[in-house]
Amino acid sequence: MADVLILAIETATGCGSVSLTAGDSRNGKVLAEYTLQPETTHSRRLLGLVEAMMVAAGTNWTDLDGVAVSQGPGSFTGLRIGMAAAKGIAMAAGVPLIGVSTLDGLAAQVPALDLPVCCLLDARKQQVYAAFYRYSDDFSCRRIGEPQVLSPEALVQRIQEPTLVAGPGIVACFAQLAAHRQARVLPAGTIHPRAALIGFCGASILATGAAGNGADLVPWYVRASEAELNLQ
Q: Is the pLDDT of residue 227 over 60?
């Protein structure tokens, strides 16, 4: 497990990243990670970042054991770009493609503690993507239920006990969280989507044999797109 080499792509937000990781978060290490907030769309820079990282790390495509991609929720356009790039790379390299929840990648960065954890991403339209987690006795992080898209008011109603809140989505509902006695709010900039954590999570999924068929992998939008809402 320690030598499983994963190329990971994270484009769920405007700040995209790519990484090479060996192993999972328990026994692995980050070999390389590039992060960029581009002025253009991810499609203009993503593959160039991957190639530059592979060259800098001295890694060949044949060395890869899998490709992990942030599956969502997040920016609809960003997720589609990342997914398309990840599918192309995985197919060309002949390795499994692993989808990882963007919010699971955030939760993997939070140190293990007794408090439940709520991870947030800005969903725009005065909403946030939210998921709740708990750590078990072996320090593994377990998601409680499915990610949801919530208004700030609905989010704070879900927090019924002391809960650590993390992620860039804090900015979108800071006033409501600051006024909530049970919310323990981390600074918004300390936890953000990172390709390296998507890679570690992907390695864990690969080890369980639950990677599935990469050809069938689709972005996890959580809510309907604007086009779908207009059609309805």
A: no
The CATH number of whichever domain residue 130 belongs to comes to: 3.30.420.40
pLDDT at position 40: 58
CA distance 1 to 177: 39
Contact 23, 201 (CB under 8 A): no
Instruction: Report the side by side order of strands in the sheet with 29-36.
Output: 29-36, 16-22, 5-10, 66-72, 97-101
Mind listing the pLDDT tens digit for each residue in 107-165?
999 987 889 999 999 999 999 999 999 988 767 789 999 999 999 999 999 999 999 99
Domain containing 70 equals: 5-103+192-231
Quote the CA–CA distance of 9 and 70 in Å, as a whole number: 6
Please report where in the chains the tokens 């320090």 appear, as a residue.
139
Residue-level length of the chain: 232
* Rounded Cα gap, residues 99 and 56, in angstroms: 25
Q: Are residues 131 and 49 in the same domain?
A: no
User: Both 130 and 49 in a single domain?
Assistant: no
Residues 168 and 67 in one domain: no
